[in-house]
Each structure stands twice: as C-alpha cells, then as structure tokens.
Amino acid sequence: GYFAKRAFAHMKHETYGLAKADSDDAIKLDPNYAKAYYRKADANIALNKYELALDSLKIVILKLKIQDQDAQEKFKFVKKVLKERAFLEAIRRMRTTRSTLPRSMK
Length: 106
Hints:
Blueprint: H1 2-12, H2 16-29, H3 34-46, H4 50-63, H5 69-100
Helix pairs in contact: 1-2, 1-3, 2-3, 3-4, 4-5
C-alpha cells in the first residue's frame, strides 16, 4: 500500500533515497509485498546500487515467483551492468598489476 505508492511518487520526483526508505517501510509491514521490492530495486538502480537492486529483484522473481516482464527485463539489465563492471574492474587490476611488475617481467 501506502509506502509503496509514496515510493513511486518519490521516484517520479527523483528523490531516490526517500523512495528506497519508503520501500523499506513497506517491506517491514508486508515482507511478501512484491511491489515494494520492485520499487526498492528501481530506487537502487537510480542510485547506481546495482548489487542491492539485484537482491530486490531476486526476491520478486525467485522467492515471490512474480512473472512480471518488466521485472525480468530489469533483472537482466542489472546482471549485465554488474558483469560489465566486473569486467572493467578486472582490466583495471590487470593494468595495475602489470604496471607494478619489474621491467624484466613485462
């Protein structure tokens, strides 16, 4: 109910932290309320907190077994972003490691 609807309003006003807080309140009132997890995922995506968004989407899709197309697409999008970030981090680490090797080992 109320908190999930208010979270939606916060999303429209781009007050993502408040949307996340209201989503958390909605989840406390009803831990099986899928829309609250969905709103929380949206807020975390907007805040670039993709790991947290993935956690919420997993609850919606896997635990609550909601077959929503939009949730499925967001789940795939978030997983893609996290894979890309991991790939870029691996490249960064390789460059850092290579730059610290003695010249004879390069």
